[in-house]
Amino acid sequence: MNTKRIILAACCLLLTTLAARADDVFRMKKAAGAHVETLKVERRFGKSEAFSPFLSKGAITALSITGSFEKTGDEYLVRVLLKDADGKEHLVMESYEEICDKEQFAFAGYCEETALLEGIRPDSIKVYVRDAVLRIESIDIQTVAPGRMLKGGAFKAAKAEARRAQVEAVAKKINEYNVSHGKIWIAGVTDIALADYSVRRAMTGCPDGCQSGGIEYYVDGFFEVGKAKPETRKKTLRSSSSSVVSEFDWRTRHGRNWITPVRSQGGSSCCVAFAGVSCLEALLNLYYNQPLNWDLSEWELACNGGVAPGQSPYDAGVSPVKAAIYLKNTGIGIEDYNVFPKDTNIYLTLQAPDTLVRISQYAMIDKNEDSIKKALIKYGPLGSGYLHHAFNDSAYNSTLHSDGHAMAIIAYNRINGNESNIYLSAEGGLQMIQNLRNYVGCTYWTFKNSYKSSPYVKVIFNDYTLMAGPFVLFTPIRVKDPYGNDIYSDDDIICEDRDGDGYYFWGIGQKPANCPDWVPDVKDGDDSNINYGTMDENGFLQSLSPNGYTINTSVTYSSNNVVSSRIGIVNNGILTITGTTTMNAQSVIRVCEGGTLIVDGGTLQNANLKLIPGSHLIIRNNGSINMSSDTPFNAPLGVIVDIESGSVN
């Protein structure tokens, strides 16, 4: 028996089997009356390079390749691009671990974007390989008589249909990989994945020689940046400890959402501008402690973010440092003056806005978990994102690729194993729920994105060197007209006690001078919960006792009862007592600015009242307040006391 012949036959069978599994959606769309020509290539690629096999530069309507690849490492990448005579690049083939984890893969007539082309003139083929060996045996090109060529709307519709089918197939492969390899993120059809390769490259910041890990297909779950084996992750979790609170979210802090709506960067490279503006819009809300929710101009920031002369920021991208410098030295206006363009070919002349929003300073933060958490808690949302794996690609200008995608960090949390609801409708979701067990205790970061199809992304960083930035924008936030006059000043900062615990919140800056003198110097750590007071630098809240509750609507105590809690009557809150309410020694009723206490024919016994200027006390129908023996009645200046009929004893 010939052993070599058996091994060779087995290898051929494996390659044939893999080729047979190739989806039909990755095959050339043959048109009626089309002519297909096969170009012999017979080339092996162990490194990235470009070549031109085209003898004729005539228009073609499709292109596919036949060959195989063998991976030599888990970080492998195989990407084949068709460059046309106008310089545009079209994706012929793309594979990395999440798409195909086979050791070797054979393909015949394979094509992605080049399955349907609108009569482009081919120039060259660009091959990018990393930790892999690619063999291209042949290239098929299709030509169609001009009169039969799909054009305009018909071409766009056919192309969109074909591309959606391909994206669905790739998302399915990624989900299968995630399930079998213990991952916990869900892939699906997204606007980014559906976009042309050149647009997708700009949106994700992923250079030709880098693989994205499938981030453009992300729809939910926890995406990982950097590799980590399950046993390594468990060891890290056992040995790790954090001095900072385990979760924090600016979408819910103080009972409010301080984050402005997600806006789309379109097909541009301007993610840095969108991340910076996302941070600034939230800081504007937080500094003045009110939901201003201004829509500031990303385009204005992009155009002033370090773009080289003659380049459009739509395509060239933005420098984070230069964008921050512009926000510090000049500031930006609202979107109405400089609307973000929807097309790369549109070059707009910037208009001078009537309002400029400016930061006071900016800084980079150390890339360690606790430093980033503390900065998020203290300073508000952070400019950040992720970087793609950097490597030296000697075939193309010896460039060190380390591009990525910028977003704004708005929250963090730890996986606790109870997140199963996000997987219930996903393919392979039940197995992903099982996979969650290996991630319990992992910190993940929630990013506000600039893609409408995936507005928020939850990311686990196994390698913090691959986190972009992060950078912080410092308050005070100045809002002025072009002549330097204040539109908003520190006098506009709202200082308030929304939960009635006696601690006030005035935003994320220093205590403003307009706070009344009875306001404590330390701000409220959670102004939506009367049971928590101040917060330390690690995000832990001071528990207050006894437990209390906040009244912010109209409430009536009509029956006899005993109060043993702290009660905070806040703005628009009304407590009416018509029966007998007896307070125990630890209880207190705090009537805040805009709050009202009414004793209407009833009795408040053993009372401990804290009346704050701006509050209202009404006694009528012979109601009575009998103060505690050690708590005298005190109505400071600014308290309105109406005793229509009744008494305070």
Task: Summarize the helices and strands and which ones pair or pack.
Layout: H1 3-20, E1 35-45, E2 49-51, E3 62-71, E4 77-84, E5 89-96, E6 104-110, E7 122-130, E8 132-143, H2 152-180, E9 184-187, H3 191-194, H4 197-204, E10 218-225, H5 230-239, E11 248-249, H6 271-288, H7 298-303, H8 313-316, H9 320-329, E12 356-358, E13 361-364, H10 369-379, E14 382-387, E15 391-393, E16 399-401, E17 404-414, H11 429-435, E18 443-448, E19 456-461, E20 471-474, E21 478-480, E22 486-488, E23 532-535, E24 541-543, E25 548-551, E26 554-557, E27 561-563, E28 566-569, E29 574-577, E30 580-583, E31 588-591, E32 596-600, E33 603-607, E34 609-611, E35 616-620, E36 623-627, E37 640-643, E38 646-648
Parallel strand pairs: 10-19, 25-28, 26-29, 27-30, 28-31, 29-32, 30-33, 31-34, 32-35, 33-36, 35-37, 36-38
Antiparallel strand pairs: 1-8, 2-7, 3-6, 3-8, 4-5, 4-7, 9-10, 11-17, 12-21, 13-20, 14-17, 15-16, 17-18, 18-19, 21-22, 23-24
* Strand residues, percent: 25-35%
Task: Count the E strands.
Answer: 38
What oligomeric assembly is this protein in?
A: single chain
CATH domain fold name of the largest domain = Cathepsin B, Chain A
CATH hierarchy class name of the largest domain: Alpha Beta
User: Mind telling me the C-alpha Rg?
Assistant: 32 Å
| Through-space gap between termini | 111 Å
3D shape: elongated
Which spans of ≥5 residues are poorly predicted at pLDDT below 50? 1-22, 394-401
Rounded mean pLDDT score: 90
How much helicity do the residues have?
A: 10-25%
How many helices does DSSP assign?
11
- CATH-wise, what's the superfamily of the largest domain? Cysteine proteinases
**What's the architecture of the largest domain in CATH terms?**
Alpha-Beta Complex
Largest sheet: 7 strands, mixed
The figure for the number of domains is: 3
What structural category characterises the helix and strand content?
alpha/beta
